[in-house]
Design brief:
CATH topology: Metallo-beta-lactamase, Chain A
Helix content: 10-25%
Number of domains: 1
CATH class: Alpha Beta
Order of helices and strands: EEEHEHEHEHHHEEEEEHHEEEHEE
Radius of gyration: 18 Å
Distance between the termini: 36 Å
Number of strands: 16
CATH superfamily: Ribonuclease Z/Hydroxyacylglutathione hydrolase-like
Length: 295
């Protein structure tokens, strides 16, 4: 667990990265894959858990949030098991929402772009294509707008008028050692985040892949804008995590890729505070991606 001596220091030379679990839900497994799969569709399973996370990057003079979750009102509306406000949960790390410098919005779905109003001093980073889709004509279709909340999108528009939004048009740097990577697929402007940590470059995939299994089986989450782009994004996550040794040989780092909603993350990385996992620490077990990412 974190102690006052082990809490992340924003002025440290290296980044530490944390996942905060703020909600959960159990549903039938078929809700989580586009095509039936024998390892998922088992009537005896009694459902599969999906966890909801936000991520915090601390170090090198800054505090960066990756996504902001949803609030209790949204949880009640969508019947999610709400564990607590993600913004308030920063206190477990000795931090506060008021101290957050940058917020990367990986995409504008309700479970990633709520609570923007809880970060009064932050600048928001989002892909142009994501905002164009969320404010464009396709939102007239119920199936397209279902994962979005108008209030969240309006908050972002309001902050743009206040000159607090940075629109990315592809890959870009959020801060030294922190990168944004446009993939599309799950949404029109889906982006992942890379972070240089003491143990290597960590890839926060967010909803590029909800679960490790989806990258293993190449079977996307059923809420998807572009299936081929989603499958290509799985390959991109692998490439982003790869390292080249002094002989020029490429090595996979499956332990460096973190999906957006997988409960297994809690088993693979150490818990350091209530519902708070340190992803920049050494993993406690082998990633499922190691089964398929072999050169």
């Amino acid at each position: 667990m974190t102690t006052p001596d082990n809490r992340p220091d924003p002025n440290a030379d290296t980044y530490r990265v944390f996942a905060i679990r703020y909600a959960t839900l159990r549903r039938d497994p078929h809700h989580f894959v586009l095509e039936p799969h024998p390892e998922v569709i088992d009537p005896h399973e009694g459902g599969r858990v999906i966890d909801y996370f936000v991520w915090v990057i601390v170090g090198r003079g800054r505090i960066v949030m990756v996504d902001t979750g949803f609030n209790e009102e949204a949880a009640n509306k969508r019947k999610r098991n709400f564990l607590g406000c993600p913004a308030a949960a920063l206190s477990r790390l000795g931090l506060s929402a008021e101290r957050v410098d940058e917020v990367v919005v990986t995409h504008l779905h309700y479970d990633h772009a709520g609570n923007l109003d809880r970060f009064p001093n932050a600048r928001f980073h989002v892909q142009r294509s994501e905002v164009a889709f969320a404010t464009g004509p396709d939102m007239r279709h119920p199936v397209c707008r279902a994962p979005f909340e108008p209030e969240d999108v309006c908050h972002l528009v309001t902050y743009n008028f206040a000159e607090r939004v940075r629109f990315l048009n592809g890959d870009g740097e959020i801060a030294p050692g922190i990168g944004a990577h446009l993939t599309g697929g799950h949404t029109a402007g889906m982006q992942a985040v890379s972070v240089e940590t003491a143990r290597g470059k960590l890839i926060l995939a967010s909803d590029v892949a909800h679960f490790f299994d989806q990258m293993v089986w190449r079977n996307p989450f059923p809420v998807v804008v572009n299936i081929p782009a989603t499958l290509a994004a799985y390959e991109r996550m692998r490439e982003l995590a790869q390292v080249r040794d002094e002989r020029g040989e490429i090595h996979d780092r499956p332990d460096m890729v973190i999906p957006g909603h997988d409960p297994l993350v809690q088993e693979l990385y150490p818990t350091v505070a209530e519902e708070t996992i340190e992803l920049s620490a050494e993993p406690l077990g082998e990633s499922p991606l190691a089964k398929v990412w072999t050169l």
